[in-house]
Design goal:
Elements lengths: L1 E6 L3 H12 L3 E6 L13 H14 L5 H25 L4 H23 L8 H18 L4 H25 L1 H5 L2
Parallel strand pairs: 1-2
Length: about 180
Amino acid sequence: MKIAVLISGGVDSAVVVHRLYNQGHDLHLFYIRIGMDNGEGDCSAEEDIEMCTLIARKYNLVTDFGKFADPLADKMLTTAAMLWFVENGQMPAWVLLIVLVREFAVSGLRMIASDKGRVIAAGWSGKVKTASTMVCIVLMFLPIPSIVNTICVWVITLTTLYSGVEYFMKNKDVIQSA
């Protein structure tokens, strides 16, 4: 039986999910925020979302909120960091442009594929790009030698370009049928 569960990150949500999961139900989680962030609630919105994420991961469940918010949050955080690097002179603006164009292009391709009932999973090179970009961003926030900064910029650029080209080459049939 499929059951939709509204989770708010509280203990009651965790108990309900645990009991239903143990009974063998097919759970579909939906995040709902209860309370306000003015200090009158039990926890902040960040703690609330973090608790929901932990519940979903514990039971290998996917929330609709997570499917939308997780990749969006990643893109927003990496873009904000890279904007800061551009402002500080640690990264040329054209590198950020390459990253943004790739993200918009891949998202557009995924939307076209989705309209055709097809889901395009992230490829290996995209995962390498994401992991190496995150490592480089962390390094670039540290007081590192300029050569390491330059290497990080090139790693971000090359992995972004390679994964973007590979993504479109592997899915050119989606574009041709559009």
